[in-house]
UniProtKB/TrEMBL annotation:
GO terms for molecular function: oligopeptide transmembrane transporter activity. Residues 13-25 have a biased composition (Low complexity). Keywords: Membrane, Transmembrane, Transmembrane helix, Transport. It is a multi-pass membrane protein. This is OPT oligopeptide transporter protein. PANTHER family: OLIGOPEPTIDE TRANSPORTER YGL114W-RELATED. The keyword Metal-binding does not apply. It comes from the Bacteria. The keyword Transcription regulation does not apply. Residues 1-38 are annotated as: Disordered.
Length: 632
């Protein structure tokens, strides 16, 4: 398909008046369930409650998985599939545009998690949260909520230009519209998704039994390692010995072949498909190429055993190389987005001259929301600056607000054209600028950086949702109102999940994220490396520089985000990359054997269920551990 959207079929004399929506968007004639008469359903209590509940569950689950694999996956299609199962299958009332409102709310509540997990964990990694009280967390949540509101408010005026005039594709939004137009299949898909959730919940519960035994000292539930299967551990499957036996002299003792029992990674890989093999390739490069070379040439500390080589090389070489690749790739991605800026400014200027009537949210609402959100950002920034300087608070709040508008429009433009956006690069630049403006103070810089990241993700999400609405005949103003009303919920949920996981890890292993835990928080680790370098820490600058150069070259290859993805996989644990890569291969196999239609119809909902189910159990266990005092 080309970048422009498909032309809708022309109206025929038999079409109902509601089949053609304002602005020429096509609305499927069958929007009410068979046999249902009455007022046309769009914004309803059912859709609002459904959207908030599903959005909260998706937010918590994807925050959990994103902290583990370093990136997030969208939840709009999952919400749309579940919407048919609940609104049409259970309540027997759902219409296409009512389900669209439900998925709009769900995605707006969910999407802000990437902005939080890319930035906030660095406060834990640097130990800065130890002096915080509950008011500091409230201000951080308020700043992120203000960013969410500003992101939505800034992007609304560009809708008509980007969607109706420029006709940008917005691939995710177009795909969700396809789900919404298939209510019959949607109900069946929702059942498959629920099966995937249940399978993942059972598997993850078994993996979490050791943690629960520690939390509740009186429990002595059997763990997976007690089943007597040699390769099976409590949380992993160790295939190193069978692989060594099979390959003989071709296998080196410093190689590892341990798989995490991680349904979310398998599901995320299946959802990504062939493009995700880049992530697996980065892991193979790090663990099966660089590690043996480093060990064979004695580039590791004297006395390092072959069994310990993978962990030692990861910390000494692969991690800084990967961080450098991520940073170099992210900054190149930002530079490659420069051509989109011209189109973004054109969209902003042209849309301001367009007559929008009742299709768009009234400008007076935006005129109130934007100053109010800026005020919250200002007071939040002031609360974290060491001397409470109003000047510095106003400076970084103003810079952050202007950057949200500028970068948010660019991100939306990039997403509309390619479905990829350089959020990590913009987050890095934001934090660095704020550190310079506040005399190298980390906390206010990270707070503004988090708010900007949340705003950017919501800019892209809002336009994807509006594209979906345009294709199914929804009224833009209704989507805009509901998203503006609930968008502040998401950051609070993501922050709570980050806090619970960090506190649980601090209690059990003494480290919040990163090495020593099963939560790498890869993007935040990269940000930590940059901050420590700026503050004069002892950093392997030569490895960062080498990695950055490689990241630049990869990102200039024409494949969006290649440097970032390979960099991430260089220092993520291999045990998560292996099931992720297997998921990619399974999707490719299903397409080859059963066809793309079957794979998207049945495979993707099940894979999404695996991702969501593990996240739900993981968050619940972290919450239980926090409430009941953690582990021994």
């Amino acid at each position: 398909m080309s970048n422009s959207e498909q032309v809708p079929p022309p109206a025929s004399p038999g079409d109902s008046p509601s089949a053609i929506a304002p602005g020429g968007a096509y609305r499927a004639p069958e929007t009410q369930p068979p046999g249902k008469q009455g007022p046309y359903r769009e914004v309803t209590i059912s859709s609002i409650v459904f959207g908030i509940v599903v959005g909260a569950l998706l937010n918590a689950s994807i925050t959990y998985s994103g902290l583990k694999i370093g990136f997030t996956v969208g939840g709009s299609a999952v919400a749309a599939v579940l919407g048919w199962g609940v609104l049409r299958g259970i309540l027997r009332k759902g219409t296409i545009v009512e389900n669209n409102i439900g998925q709009t709310i769900a995605s707006s509540v969910n999407t802000s998690n990437s902005g939080v997990i890319f930035t906030v964990p660095v406060l834990f990694l640097l130990g800065l949260q130890s002096t915080w009280g509950w008011t500091d967390w409230v201000w951080l949540a308020a700043a992120c909520a203000a960013g969410a509101i500003l992101g939505v408010a800034f992007i609304i005026p560009t809708r008509k230009q980007m969607i109706e005039l420029d006709r940008l594709r917005f691939p995710t939004g177009t795909a969700v519209a396809t789900v919404l137009r298939s209510p019959g299949e949607g109900i069946q898909k929702s059942l498959v998704l629920v099966v995937g959730i249940l399978v993942a919940m059972v598997v993850t519960f078994l993996v979490q039994v050791p943690q629960l035994n520690k939390v509740f000292g009186g429990l002595d539930w059997p763990t997976l390692s007690q089943l007597g299967i040699p390769i099976l551990g409590d949380e992993t499957i160790d295939l190193t010995i069978p692989m060594a036996a099979a390959l003989g002299d071709f296998w080196r003792p410093e190689l590892t072949f341990v798989w995490a029992i991680a349904p979310f990674a398998l599901g995320a890989g299946f959802i990504t498909g062939r493009p995700g093999l880049v992530v697996l390739a980065g892991g193979i490069l790090a663990y099966w190429v660089i590690t043996p070379i480093a060990f064979a040439n004695d580039w590791v500390a004297f006395g390092t055993s072959a069994e310990a080589a993978a962990a030692v090389v990861r910390g000494a070489m692969n991690r800084p190389l990967g961080i450098g690749m991520l940073l170099g790739g992210a900054l190149v991605g930002l530079l490659l987005a420069l051509p989109a800026m011209r189109g973004a400014f054109s969209s902003s200027g042209s849309s301001s001259k367009s007559g929008r009537g009742r299709e768009e949210m009234p400008m007076w609402v935006l005129a109130i929301a934007i100053p109010a959100a800026f005020a919250v950002l200002f007071f939040a920034a002031r609360s974290t600056i060491t001397d409470g300087s109003m000047g510095q608070a106003a400076l970084i709040a103003g810079m952050g607000t202007a950057w949200m508008w500028f970068a948010g429009i660019v991100i939306a433009q990039c997403t509309g054209m390619t479905d990829w956006s350089p959020i990590s690069g913009i987050a890095l630049v934001t934090v660095l600028i704020c550190m310079f403006l506040t005399d190298m103070q980390v906390i206010p810089a990270v707070m503004i950086g988090a708010a900007v990241c949340v705003a950017m993700t919501l800019c892209a999400d809002m336009m994807q949702d509006l594209k979906t609405g345009h294709l199914v005949g929804a009224k833009p103003i209704r989507q805009q109102i509901v998203e503006m009303s609930v968008v502040w919920i998401g950051p609070a949920i993501a922050l709570l999940v980050v806090y619970l996981i960090a506190q649980n890890n601090l209690t059990t292993v003494g480290v919040p994220f990163g090495d020593g835990t099963d939560v790498p928080a890869a993007q935040a680790v990269a940000l930590q490396a940059v901050i420590e370098s700026m503050r004069g820490g002892d950093a392997p600058i030569h490895l960062y520089g080498m990695g950055a150069a490689i990241g630049v070259v990869l990102s200039l290859s024409g494949l969006g985000g290649l440097g970032v993805l390979v960099g991430l996989s260089m220092y993520l644990p291999l045990m998560y990359l292996l099931p992720y890569g297997l998921g990619c291969l399974i999707q490719m196999f299903c397409i080859a054997v059963k066809g793309r239609g079957w794979t998207e119809r049945w495979g993707l909902p099940f894979a999404a269920g695996l991702l969501v189910g593990e996240g739900m159990v993981g968050v619940v266990v972290a919450g239980v551990a926090f409430i009941f005092g953690g582990a021994a």
